[in-house]
C-alpha cells in the first residue's frame, strides 16, 4: 500500500459544499472524535470548481485542504469529473449519453456524459490538470481519485459519437479488414454482412435478437472506453503529481457486470472498491465475501481500499433496511479480513437535501447521540486495535476463475436457459468453500495457476485455448480442477466449439455431451452418489457420455435419468472434475467436501456458514479473522492474542453471536 495513506484508513466521502460553512468546523471536530484519518473530497464538485467555461473557484477547496491538514486528516482528492456541470451540457448537448432505444439521458441526475465524447474528455482533462497543478504538493494530499464509479449510470452509450468510436475500435480489433469482422460476427447469418466499417452500428434496439458477437464486442468496447477515461486522467496526474498514487472506485458486486475490472486493476496504482449489501437478500455476508475476494483478484492479490460502503440503510433500493446492531462492524471487518487496508464510507454526514438524503452516513441526521454514531466510533477504535494487519494479505490454496468476458457471453440472449447466471455457481462454490474454512482467491483465467491445489472453473462459457492449456497443465502437475456446466462452449468470437460439449474442456474432463437438457422453471431432479441419499439439482442437465472419466454421481430422474451428473478423470498427478448440473446448496456442500479432500486443502478452524474465518499473512506474522454472523457463540481452537479484546487465547477463542475477533497467531500460518 502506498506510504502516503494511513495504515488502515478510516473515513469516507466528504461533501462540504452541501453544508453551510458553520458545519465545517464541527465536521472536523467530530471527524477527530471518530478517528477519521482519510476523506474523499470533491467527488461531485465540478460545478463548484468551475462555475462557468472560463471561471474557476478553488478558494473553498484550498480552505478545506488546509483545514483538513491542520486536523491531521489526509485527503483522497477527486478529479471531480464524474458529474459535468449544467453549463457544459447546455453548450454541448452532443455529449449526453443515449440509451439503446435512442433516448437521451439529460442532466439533472449525475454522470450525464457519453464516455466517448471528445468534448467531455477535453473539459474533464482541463479540470483534472487544474486540480493537479494546484494541489500536487499539498501536504494533505494522499491519493488521487479519478472520476467516480466510472460507468455507474452511463456504461453503454449508443449515440452517434459512440457509434463512430465503436467503428474505430473495431477497425483496430479486426486490422481494418471488414472480412475479418464478418467472419468473427458470423454475419453470413440473417444477411448481416457488412461491406464497409461505416455501415456498422452499436447494437441498438433491433426488430429481434441483435448479433451476439456485435453485442460482445460492444461490451468490450464500452469497458475499454471507460477505462480510457481513467487512463487519460491518470496520465495527467502521474505527470504533474508524481509519487501520489491514483485510484478510481470499482463496483465489484453482483449487480455490476459492465466493466472488466480484472483487466482494469492492472492500470491502477491502488485498487479501491465500493460495496453495498442488497437488503432484500438474506445472508448478504456471502456475496460480500465473494465480492471482496474478487476485488483482491482485481488488485492482483495485494491489499486494496474499501472506498465506500454504508453505515446502515441506502436510499436506492426499493426497501432500504437499516443495518442491525453490529452488522456494520462485521461488514467492515469482513472486507479487512479479505485484504482491505481501508474502511471508508459513503458518506461523512448524511445529506439534508438531494436524492441521497435517506442514505446513511457516518454522522446521521439525528446527530451523535445515536447507536450509529457510537458504532462508528467503536469501529474506528477496533481498526486502530488491528492496525498491524495492514500490508498483509490472504494466501490461499484454492482459486476460482472469473472472467468478465465469459460473464458477458454467458448472459447474452437466445441461450439454452435464462436461468444460467454467470455468478451463480461461482458464488455458491465460494460459499461452500468458505463455510468449510477454505480461503479462495477469485482470479482472471490468465493468472499463473501453478501455486493452487484446487482450481474452480464455474460457467466459463467463453474460454481461450491458452486457458484450457493452463488448466490442463495445472491438473497434470497435481491440482484438482473442477469445471461446471456451460463452460468451454465458445471461443473469443462466441463461435461454438464443435464436436460436442463442453467444447474446449472435453478432452481435459474426459466427457462428451451431445445435447443440453435444460430444466423448466420450478423443475428439479435428484442426483445420487455424493454421499448418503440423493441431493436436488435444477436448471440444467446434459446428455453426457463418459470418454475417459468416471461417473461419481448420476441423475435419478428427469430428462437425464441414469446418466452421469458429476464426473472425474485422472490427469497426470491431478484430477479434472465436471459438474453437469446445478446442485442445490446441500449438494454443493457435499461436492466441496470431496474436492477439499481430493485436493488436500487446509481448512481454517471453526468456520461454518455463519462463522467466517480467514487468514491474512504478513512477513513474519499471521492473523486469523473470525466474524460471527450467527446468534450462537462460536468456538475456535486458535492460539495467540485476540487484538480486539487484547486477551491471550490458548486454543479456546470464544466469539459471541454477532461478534468479531482478530487473532495474531502464536504459530504463524502458511505463507507460501
Ligand atoms: C455510489 C456512489 C456514491 C453514492 C453511493 C450511494 O457508491 O459512488 O456517490 O451515490 O453510491 O450508495
Characterization of the model:
This protein is of the alpha/beta class. It has three domains: 9-160 and 222-389, TIM Barrel, CATH 3.20.20; 398-599, Class I glutamine amidotransferase (GATase) domain (Rossmann fold, 3-Layer(aba) Sandwich); 611-665, Immunoglobulin-like. Helices cover 30% and strands 20% of the residues. The chain has 17 helices and 28 strands. The strands form five sheets. A ten-stranded mixed beta sheet has the order 11-10-12-13-20-19-18-15-16-21, with helices on both faces. β25 and β26 form a beta hairpin. It is globular and about 75 Å long. It starts with 8 loop residues before the first strand and ends in a 7-residue tail after the last strand. The model has no long low-confidence stretch (mean pLDDT 97). Alpha-D-galactopyranose (GLA) is lined by residues 148-149, 274, 276, 308, 314, 346, 356, 359. Alpha-D-galactopyranose binds next to loops.
Amino acid at each position: 500500500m502506498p506510504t502516503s495513506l494511513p495504515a488502515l484508513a478510516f473515513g469516507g466521502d466528504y461533501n462540504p459544499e452541501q453544508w453551510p460553512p458553520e458545519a465545517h468546523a464541527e465536521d472536523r471536530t467530530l471527524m477527530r472524535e471518530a478517528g477519521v484519518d482519510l476523506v474523499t473530497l470533491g467527488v461531485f464538485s465540478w460545478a463548484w470548481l468551475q462555475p462557468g467555461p472560463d471561471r474557476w473557484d478553488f478558494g473553498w477547496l484550498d480552505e478545506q485542504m488546509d483545514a483538513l491538514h491542520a486536523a491531521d486528516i489526509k485527503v483522497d482528492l477527486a478529479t471531480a469529473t464524474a458529474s459535468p456541470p449544467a453549463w457544459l451540457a447546455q453548450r454541448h448537448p452532443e455529449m449526453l449519453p443515449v440509451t439503446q432505444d435512442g433516448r437521451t439521458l439529460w442532466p439533472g441526475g449525475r454522470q450525464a456524459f457519453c464516455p466517448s465524447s471528445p468534448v467531455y474528455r477535453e473539459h474533464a482533462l482541463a479540470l483534472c490538470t487544474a486540480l493537479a497543478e494546484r494541489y500536487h504538493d499539498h501536504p494533505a494530499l494522499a491519493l488521487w481519485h479519478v472520476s467516480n464509479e466510472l460507468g455507474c449510470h452511463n456504461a453503454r452509450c449508443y449515440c452517434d459519437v459512440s457509434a463512430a468510436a465503436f467503428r474505430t475500435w473495431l477497425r483496430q480489433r479486426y486490422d481494418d479488414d471488414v472480412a475479418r469482422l464478418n467472419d468473427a460476427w458470423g454475419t453470413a447469418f440473417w444477411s448481416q454482412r457488412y461491406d464497409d466499417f461505416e455501415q456498422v452500428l452499436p447494437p441498438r434496439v433491433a426488430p429481434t435478437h441483435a448479433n451476439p458477437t456485435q453485442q460482445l464486442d460492444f461490451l468490450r468496447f464500452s469497458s475499454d472506453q471507460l477505462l480510457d477515461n481513467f487512463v487519460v486522467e491518470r496520465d495527467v496526474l502521474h505527470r504533474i503529481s508524481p509519487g501520489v498514487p491514483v485510484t478510481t472506485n470499482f463496483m465489484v458486486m453482483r449487480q455490476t457486470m459492465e466493466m472488466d475490472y480484472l483487466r482494469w486493476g492492472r492500470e491502477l496504482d491502488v485498487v479501491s472498491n465500493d460495496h453495498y449489501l442488497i437488503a432484500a437478500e438474506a445472508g448478504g455476508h456471502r456475496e460480500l465475501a465473494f465480492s471482496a475476494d474478487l476485488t483482491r483478484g482485481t488488485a492482483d492479490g495485494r491489499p486494496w481500499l474499501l472506498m465506500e460502503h454504508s453505515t446502515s440503510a441506502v436510499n436506492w433500493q426499493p426497501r432500504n433496511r437499516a443495518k442491525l446492531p453490529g452488522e456494520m462492524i462485521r461488514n467492515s471487518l469482513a472486507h479487512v479480513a479479505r485484504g482491505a487496508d481501508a474502511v471508508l464510507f459513503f458518506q461523512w454526514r448524511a445529506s439534508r437535501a438531494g436524492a441521497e438524503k435517506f442514505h446513511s452516513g457516518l454522522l446521521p441526521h439525528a446527530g451523535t447521540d445515536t447507536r450509529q454514531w457510537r458504532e462508528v466510533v467503536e469501529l474506528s477504535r477496533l481498526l486502530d486495535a488491528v492496525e498491524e494487519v495492514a500490508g498483509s494479505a490472504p494466501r490461499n490454496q484454492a482459486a476460482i476463475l472469473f472472467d468478465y468476458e465469459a460473464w458477458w457471453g454467458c448472459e447474452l440472449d437466445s441461450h439454452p436457459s435464462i436461468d444460467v447466471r454467470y455468478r451463480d455457481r461461482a458464488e455458491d462454490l465460494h460459499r461452500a468453500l468458505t463455510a468449510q474454512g477454505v480461503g479462495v482467491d477469485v482470479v482472471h483465467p490468465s493468472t499463473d495457476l501453478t501455486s493452487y491445489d484446487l482450481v474452480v472453473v464455474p460457467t466459463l462459457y467463453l474460454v481461450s485455448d491458452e486457458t484450457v492449456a493452463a488448466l490442463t497443465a495445472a491438473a497434470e502437475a497435481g491440482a484438482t480442477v473442477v469445471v461446471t456446466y456451460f463452460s468451454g462452449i465458445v471461443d473469443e468470437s462466441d463461435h461454438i466449439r464443435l464436436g460436442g460439449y463442453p467444447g474446449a474442456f472435453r478432452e481435459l474432463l474426459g466427457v462428451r455431451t451431445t445435447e443440453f437438457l435444460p430444466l423448466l422453471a420450478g423443475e428439479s431432479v435428484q442426483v445420487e452418489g455424493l454421499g448418503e441419499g440423493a441431493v436436488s439439482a435444477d436448471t440444467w442437465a446434459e446428455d453426457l457420455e463418459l470418454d475417459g472419466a468416471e461417473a461419481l454421481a448420476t441423475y435419478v430422474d428427469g430428462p437425464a435419468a441414469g446418466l452421469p451428473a458429476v464426473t472425474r478423470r485422472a490427469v497426470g498427478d491431478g484430477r479434472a472434475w465436471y459438474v453437469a448440473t446445478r446442485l442445490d446448496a446441500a449438494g454443493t456442500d457435499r461436492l466441496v467436501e470431496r474436492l477439499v479432500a481430493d485436493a488436500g486443502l487446509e481448512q481454517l478452524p471453526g468456520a461454518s456458514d455463519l462463522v467466517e474465518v480467514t487468514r491474512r499473512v504478513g512477513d513474519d506474522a499471521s492473523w486469523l479473522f473470525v466474524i460471527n454472523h450467527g446468534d450462537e457463540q462460536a468456538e475456535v481452537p486458535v492460539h495467540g492474542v485476540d487484538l480486539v479484546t487484547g486477551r491471550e487465547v490458548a486454543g479456546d477463542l470464544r466469539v459471541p453471536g454477532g461478534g468479531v475477533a482478530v487473532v495474531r497467531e502464536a504459530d504463524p500460518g502458511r505463507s507460501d
